[in-house]
Design brief:
Structural class: mainly beta
Mean pLDDT: 79
Number of domains: 1
Number of strands: 12
Bound molecules: zinc ion
CATH topology: Beta-clip-like
Order of helices and strands: EEEEHEEEEEEEHEH
Radius of gyration: 16 Å
Strand content: 15-25%
Number of helices: 3
Strand order of the largest sheet: 3-9-8
CATH class: Mainly Beta
Shape: globular
Distance between the termini: 34 Å
Oligomer: single chain
Length: 211
């Protein structure tokens, strides 16, 4: 059965964020495990996303792409809703959940009224990332656990090891320079992201969703 679309949400409001630009804040206390909103936008192929952002400034990380799977990218820059304003946080109170090829943002703990919502973008690293990729995706989430980057893994893997450590697929919320999909967790990290947990890719042009 199709899940009803969650374009708006009574749980949240959008306003300026100290972290970056606009952010999404709890309009009231949100219980842990609440499905807050759906990440909506134009559903397009990776090829279409590439074509669409071909001319995107490589030093600008600000796009609203979320990789759902190998076939689909959601471009919240087109027909998107408030979900696109949820900032990255290294120690967020939400996570993205993929269900029926759709993306939902759910709380992983109680969020008090007025607190900003955030989840880990876990943007995948790519072999051809530019040298300043960590600068482009620097994190200022302010969490004591901040790893300093929205990329995952936090540090660039050593070139040799990365080949064996990394899983074949990438599915970060975004990707940088020219690839298609992005998954990010390394085999050694011990974490297993739900399929598509983060996915925002950028291929040719950085189309990672930025802060
Ligand atoms: Zn951070």
């Amino acid at each position: 059965m199709a899940i009803p679309e969650m374009r708006t949400s009574p749980w949240i409001k959008v306003r300026n964020s100290k972290i970056h630009g606009k952010g999404v804040f709890a309009a009231k206390r949100i219980p842990k495990g609440t499905r807050v909103i759906e990440y909506l936008g134009d559903r397009i192929s990776h090829a279409e996303a590439d074509a669409r952002y071909e001319d995107h400034d490589p030093n600008d990380n600000h796009t609203f792409l979320f990789i759902v799977d190998k076939k689909t990218v959601i471009d919240a820059g087109v027909k998107g809703n408030a979900a696109r304003f949820i900032n990255h946080s290294c120690d967020g109170n939400c996570e993205s959940v993929i269900e029926q090829s759709r993306v939902f943002i759910e709380t992983t703990r109680v969020v008090e009224a007025g607190q900003e919502l955030g989840y880990d973008y876990e943007i995948g690293r790519e072999k051809d990332d530019p040298p300043n990729v960590d600068e482009i995706f620097a994190c200022r989430c302010g969490s004591p656990k901040c790893r300093g980057t929205m990329l995952w893994p936090a540090k660039r893997p050593a070139p040799k090891k990365s080949a064996t450590k990394k899983k074949a697929t990438r599915r970060g919320k975004s990707a940088t320079s020219g690839k298609t999909a992005a998954s990010v967790k390394t085999a050694t990290s011990g974490k297993t992201a739900p399929a598509g947990k983060s996915a925002r890719t950028a291929k040719t042009a950085p189309r990672r969703r930025g802060r």
